[in-house]
Fold this protein.
Amino acid sequence: MSRETRSVLEQAGEGADHRPLVRVAAGLIWRQGRFLAARRPEGKAFAGFWEFPGGKREEGESMEQALCRELAEELGIACVAVTPWRTLLHTYPELRVELHFMHVTVFSGEPEARDGQLLRWVTPEEARALPFLPADVGILAEIAEP
């Protein structure tokens, strides 16, 4: 666990909260000044909310490996250049999510919605008008800054 992640978890009081902790890799997939946003499909938790593509880390995976696996499964793309960026902890009523955000600046393939999600290339400014997951709202504000 990185020093930044440990610091975030300590500030959030990880030991005091008994809600399950889910570790998630999330990708900011960039193309010509826009990033790929995914709208969660009906039948999934938080259906209708927009998010950065990615998913849960499996046992034995690094966060980068988890992100690349999820992007291959859900979008049919292969990571070429991935840079870890931010880690944060967000608490929902039923669970806590440790989010590892990474910039994906080079990938191969064309993203396709393999999981029933809606995909859209948006600028950081355009994304502000979309209902993003609460855990992602602060990230949107950061990437919209000059």
Remarks:
- Helices lie at 3-12, 63-75, 124-127, 137-144.
- DSSP finds four helices and seven strands in the chain.
